[in-house]
Amino acid sequence: MSAPPSHSMPRALPPEHRQRLMRFAAEVSIPQGTRLFEEGGHADRFWIIRTGSIALDMHVPGRKAAVIETLGHNQLLGWSWLFTPHSWHLGAEALTPVRAYEFDAASVLAACRDDPELNVTVTRWVGDIVAHRLRSARTRLLDLYAPYGSGSTR
């Protein structure tokens, strides 16, 4: 399940806010198989994926990590930096070589504190993505653990 187009930064943020955020971006290349973060780790950055794909996964005791969603072009990777306690809620791994813009969360948070309009826009954008990802996680877990993917407990 991919994010709606309105979740991509170019469509979700007004040009002035997008340009302001891009001042904090560094272009990075991430090799296939790289673990970007693990559940519970300190969330101090985020990425906008330019090319390639990233799997978001959830630790499942006694089983292989469950892939919750696969992210790609123009999608946000990482939202935990915005909300205390700034700990990753999922894990992430590069499924292919990835090129991305990497953002330092502390710098973006400082810019948001200084500009209430930017803060509202970024918070709304990330909040919409969080809601989408929670729905995706719920659906994926129902498919994995409910009888025949029905969501039924019987």
Structural account:
With 154 residues, the chain is of the alpha+beta class. It has four helices and eight strands; from the N terminus they run H-H-E-E-E-E-E-E-E-E-H-H. The radius of gyration is 16 Å and the shape is globular. 26% of the residues are buried.
**Strand ordering within the main sheet:** 1-8-3-6
Over all CA atoms, what is the radius of gyration? 16 Å
Average pLDDT value?
A: 87
Q: What percent strand?
A: 25-35%
| Share in helix | 25-40%
| Global morphology | globular
Distance between the termini: 26 Å
Low-confidence stretches: 1-5
Tell me the major beta sheet: 4 strands, antiparallel
Structural class: alpha+beta
Number of strands: 8
- The SSE order reads HHEEEEEEEEHH
Q: Provide a count of the helices.
A: 4
Using brief descriptors, characterize the structure shown.
4 helices; disordered N terminus; alpha+beta; 154 residues; single chain
